[in-house]
């Protein structure tokens, strides 16, 4: 037996796995309509590439990946796209999100696809690309794109490749059944990943010891593959990625870091099978194993279900009685979230639908006072002090919360489970975390707007200085005229015009201006001269113009400036630069000025 | 309900606070029975009367604070305070003594600080100390154990009439010798006899500790072990307290000379040692919270207990030791914050 480590804390909720692991996995069939959220993974949502009315085949890409951390979405059966719209999705907040809706035609016709004969002959980039194109994202938890996770940097040496067959959440048996029935596929997938990641030390499949059948099946399939099956005592939450890593290797992932930093890559079993099918057969991720369980369902079992199938479809198959259910949960009783609607679709991360009776999961009882019994601290797998954090969360003492490492809380719920006063601790942590994140973002925003404000302030000051200079110039010009030295003035004006052009060019670039100002110890003098010259030139030009011409010129000039500003704004927007706001403002002002100028021109013409 | 979102975890553990308190009450039974056997009905009468006062005081406080009565009374915490205080008081205490103690514990020490969970000091111990300081005579007149009793033990009816009419009302109490100094007292006053001789001379010593007290201690030990087995609290604080008490009394045992502080066994089985270790020190509200914190907290109580017993002015010292450590608990917590997963070992304050 290999050494396994223990994690701090943990709880032993009733496992309740027998209900759903008695029957073999069965297909859930094809529902009438399927709904595909564009975002079933962490990262940028996919972008639709089909149109309403378009016919699609099973396995066809209907939305493509957008950016690096993203994966495409595939149709899970053949049919017709009937809508691209907001639909309710499975999300803790019960929100709606953009989805592609497909009406199944019942033919279940596959798109042409093919696998790779010998994956060892293909280079890593190609394998990763295939995994990405197959739309594979972590199927156990958050749904992080697998290709990104597996695409470890070359300078990171991966010692250990871990497959997570823990499934520590009560009630859920999706991975358990997968192990029992498809151990070969798991091992085949594990081999592909082993080839891809090339762990220098070992490849392990970690399974809790409450799944002896699964362990036996895996052991049989893994013979001679160099993949080790390790079982360890059942305890919640051993299946958390960080916890599993600690159990199997004794290493801890640094706070805020990734497993790769300690030479470990961790994969979920469902994902592993999906990768196997993607590489071997070229099949994208279009179905998964989902447990349907709870006393409000007559039949508890695991289904192989097409992604996009509405939950109601699964519930119907299982003889769900709404009256009996105390609530509907996606995921398990420890970390799952309450569903607000039965129409939400099964997505890549849906491992369980739970419809418990009020006896199984009673409605929450009112919280009593915290008696500081410390049972929560004893249960916390991360060694936090939940009761302290609870006080701080109630007092909104965010700094203290951070000092107590709230951000390391994995929201496993062990503390709330252990708490005799029924305090919904995790709820407080979630809210506080969200608040802290918000505060941080606000701080960043505030910093940005401060910079912007300062820039604006500087601009205004500069304009003020120019105005001041103009005034002086006017005065000077008047004096000059008074002296009757018109000739000299003209010469000056020409030279000044040249300088002005230069200065104007420079002024468009504040940094440059700043640099020049810094280089020139007496900028004011120059600016003043410059402005004097400008004023003179204008005056001269104006004096030779009729009013009409002058007004028309003004309109034209404004038009030009407006065009230029529009152009600038467009580039700024494209670049996402933070001058956008300033430019928009300017644009609006210019537009008003233009209208005014036009009005003045029209008025003038009418007068004449 | 529509607005109330249920979030994970959906499953809740088997324990709830009321259940915890019930188990604590249950666990006091062996110790209380032993006390009752050795010291007569006065013990039970104390407990019953104290419970009544506690419930009334709790109800009063809740009404004044406009809290739902049923919900809060149902948590049994007032009862636990009453039982703990009553057990700590001498048997055959007068009604007013109990009423003042329990009333103070519930109204001032508990509710004035915000009620259940918010009190920094253990209410039962606050009540006890207030009584000890205000009524030192009443609080140190202990009944003699059955074996040292010359006459007939007072019956239940007698015990009840003592409660209301005072000890003078009962003939048995009028006779000198019904009350006597506790073994801890005697040991402390002793400065001429070897421990061995002292043991023989005084009838209050039993086989290992104080006569009668040793059985009560064993009873509370049994109750404590039961609670441990039910995972109501962890072993850290009580065991570390008992360990430190053993260690320090062994250190100063001095071979049983006349200056000896008494053997470790004597200390473990005398006075309120076991009762304190498993029922007072473990009070979650007022103790340290982390594992290391609890160990330190318990150990320091053990040391303080011994110091006060042997060199202090009071014969038994659980209450003082615990209250002193209640003060220190936040500090202990501060310095024993456990290392979080994935973090470097916490910096000791000296490193910075
Ligand atoms: S388990 Fe609940 S009551 Fe006990 S310390 Fe933690 S939060 Fe408080
Ligand atoms: S939810 Fe957070 S604080 Fe509670 S036990 Fe889990 S990690 Fe610890």
Relevant terms:
heterodimer; A: 608 residues; 3 domains; four-stranded antiparallel beta sheet; 45% helix; elongated; B: 352 residues; mainly alpha; 2 domains; 2 strands; disordered C terminus
Your description of this structure?
The complex is a heterodimer of chains A (608) and B (352). With 608 residues, chain A is α/β, with parallel strands linked by helices. Chain A has 3 domains: 26-354, Rossmann fold (3-Layer(aba) Sandwich), CATH 3.40.50.11540; 373-466, no CATH class; 467-607, no CATH class. In chain A, 45% of the residues lie in helices and 13% in strands. Chain A has 17 helices and 17 strands. In chain A, the strands form 4 sheets. Chain A has a 6-stranded mixed beta sheet, sandwiched between helices. A 4-stranded antiparallel beta sheet of chain A has the order 2-8-7-4, with no helix packed on it. A 4-stranded parallel beta sheet of chain A has the order 11-10-9-12, sandwiched between helices. In chain A, helix 3 packs across helix 6, helix 12 (425-482) packs across helix 15 (523-543) and helix 13 (486-507) crosses helix 15 (523-543). The longest helix of chain A has 58 residues, at 425-482. The N and C termini of chain A lie far apart (105 Å). With 352 residues, chain B is mostly helical. Chain B has 2 domains: 15-180, no CATH class; 183-333, no CATH class. Chain B contains 18 helices and 2 strands. A two-stranded antiparallel ribbon of chain B has the order 1-2. Chain B starts with 16 loop residues before the first helix and ends in a 17-residue tail after the last helix. At the A-B interface, strand 16, helix 8, helix 11 and helix 12 of A face helix 1 of B.
């Amino acid at each position: 037996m290999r050494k396994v480590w223990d994690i701090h804390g943990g709880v032993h909720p009733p496992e309740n796995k027998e209900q759903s692991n008695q029957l073999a996995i069965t297909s859930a069939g094809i529902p009438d309509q399927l709904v595909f959220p564009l975002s079933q993974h962490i990262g940028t949502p996919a972008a639709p590439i089909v149109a309403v009315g378009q016919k699609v085949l099973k396995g066809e890409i209907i939305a493509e990946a957008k950016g690096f951390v993203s994966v495409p979405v595939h149709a899970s059966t053949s049919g017709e796209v009937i809508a691209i719209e907001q639909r309710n999705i499975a999300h803790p907040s019960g929100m709606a999100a953009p989805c592609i809706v497909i009406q199944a035609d019942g033919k279940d016709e596959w798109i042409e696809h093919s696998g790779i004969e010998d994956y060892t002959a293909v280079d890593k980039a190609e394998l990763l690309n295939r995994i990405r194109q197959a739309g594979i994202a972590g199927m156990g938890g958050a749904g992080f794109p697998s290709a990104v996770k597996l695409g470890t940097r070359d300078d990171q040496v991966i010692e250990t490749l871990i497959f997570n067959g823990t499934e520590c959440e009560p009630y859920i048996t999706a991975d358990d059944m997968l192990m029992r029935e498809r151990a070969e596929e798991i091992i085949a997938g594990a081999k592909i990943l082993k080839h891809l990641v090339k762990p220098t030390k070992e490849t392990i499949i970690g399974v809790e010891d409450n799944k002896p059948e699964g362990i036996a099946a895996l052991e049989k399939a893994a013979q001679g593959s160099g993949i080790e099956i390790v079982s360890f005592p059942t305890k919640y939450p051993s299946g958390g990625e960080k916890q599993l890593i600690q159990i199997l290797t004794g290493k801890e992932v640094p706070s805020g870091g990734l497993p790769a930093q300690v030479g470990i890559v961790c994969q979920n079993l469902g994902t592993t099978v999906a990768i196997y099918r993607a590489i071997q057969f070229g099949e994208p991720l279009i179905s998964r194993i989902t447990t349907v369980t709870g006393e409000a369902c007559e039949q508890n079992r695991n289904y192989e279900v097409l992604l996009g199938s509405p939950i109601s479809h699964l519930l119907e198959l299982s003889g769900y009685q709404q009256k009996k259910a105390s609530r509907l949960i996606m995921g398990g009783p420890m970390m799952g979230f309450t569903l607000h609607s039965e129409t939400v679709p099964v997505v890549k991360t849906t491992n369980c639908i739970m419809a418990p009776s009020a006896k199984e999961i009673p409605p929450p009882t009112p919280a009593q006072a915290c008696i500081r019994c410390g049972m929560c601290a004893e249960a916390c797998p991360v060694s936090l002090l939940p009761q302290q954090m609870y006080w701080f969360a109630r007092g909104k003492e965010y700094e203290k919360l951070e000092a107590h490492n709230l951000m390391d809380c994995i929201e496993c719920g062990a503390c709330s489970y252990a708490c005799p006063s029924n305090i919904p601790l995790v709820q407080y942590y979630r809210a506080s975390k969200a608040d802290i994140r918000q505060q941080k973002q606000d701080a960043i925003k505030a910093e940005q707007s401060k910079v912007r404000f300062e820039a604006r302030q500087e601009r205004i000051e500069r304009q003020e200085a120019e105005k001041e200079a103009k005034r002086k110039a006017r005065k000077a010009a008047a004096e000059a005229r008074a002296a009757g030295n018109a000739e000299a003035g003209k010469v000056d004006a020409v030279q000044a015009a040249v300088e002005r052009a230069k200065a104007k060019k420079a002024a468009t670039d504040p940094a440059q201006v700043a640099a020049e100002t810094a280089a020139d110890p007496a900028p004011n003098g120059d600016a003043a001269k410059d402005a004097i010259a400008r004023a003179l030139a204008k005056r001269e030009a104006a004096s030779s113009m009729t009013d009409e011409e002058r007004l028309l010129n003004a309109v034209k000039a404004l038009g030009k400036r407006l065009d230029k500003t529009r152009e600038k704004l467009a580039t700024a927007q494209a670049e996402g630069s933070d001058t956008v706001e300033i430019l928009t403002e300017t644009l609006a002002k210019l537009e008003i000025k233009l209208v005014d100028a036009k009005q003045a021109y029209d008025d003038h013409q009418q007068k004449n | 309900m529509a607005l109330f979102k249920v979030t994970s975890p959906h499953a809740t553990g088997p324990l709830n606070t009321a259940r915890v308190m019930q188990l604590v009450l249950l666990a006091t039974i062996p110790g209380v029975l032993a006390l009752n056997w050795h010291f007569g009905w006065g013990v039970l009468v104390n407990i019953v009367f104290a419970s009544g006062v506690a419930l009334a005081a709790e109800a009063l406080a809740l009404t004044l604070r406009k809290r739902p009565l049923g919900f809060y009374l149902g948590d049994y915490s007032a009862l636990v305070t009453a039982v703990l205080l009553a057990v700590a008081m001498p048997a055959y205490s007068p009604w007013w003594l109990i009423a003042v103690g329990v009333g103070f514990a519930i109204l001032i020490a508990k509710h004035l600080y915000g009620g259940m969970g918010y009190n920094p000091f253990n209410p039962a111990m606050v009540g006890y100390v207030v009584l000890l300081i205000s009524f030192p005579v009443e609080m140190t007149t202990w009944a003699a154990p059955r074996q040292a009793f010359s006459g007939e033990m007072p019956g239940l009816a007698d015990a009840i009439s003592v409660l209301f009419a005072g000890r003078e009302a009962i003939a048995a109490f009028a006779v000198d010798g019904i009350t006597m100094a506790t073994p801890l007292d005697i040991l402390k006053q002793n400065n001429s006899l070897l421990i061995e001789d002292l043991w023989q001379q005084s009838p209050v010593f039993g086989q290992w500790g104080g006569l009668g007290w040793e059985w009560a201690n064993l009873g509370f030990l049994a109750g404590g072990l039961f609670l441990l087995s039910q995972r109501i609290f962890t072993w850290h604080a009580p065991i570390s307290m008992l360990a430190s008490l053993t260690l320090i009394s062994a250190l100063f045992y001095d071979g049983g000379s006349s200056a000896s502080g008494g053997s470790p066994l004597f200390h473990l089985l005398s006075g309120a040692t076991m009762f304190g270790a498993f029922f007072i020190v473990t009070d979650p509200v007022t103790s340290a919270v982390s594992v290391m914190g609890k160990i330190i907290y318990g150990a320091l109580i053990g040391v303080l207990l011994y110091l006060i017993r042997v060199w202090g002015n009071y014969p038994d010292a659980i209450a003082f030791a615990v209250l002193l450590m209640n003060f220190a608990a936040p500090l202990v917590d501060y310095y024993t914050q456990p290392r979080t997963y994935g973090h470097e070992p916490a910096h000791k304050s000296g490193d910075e």
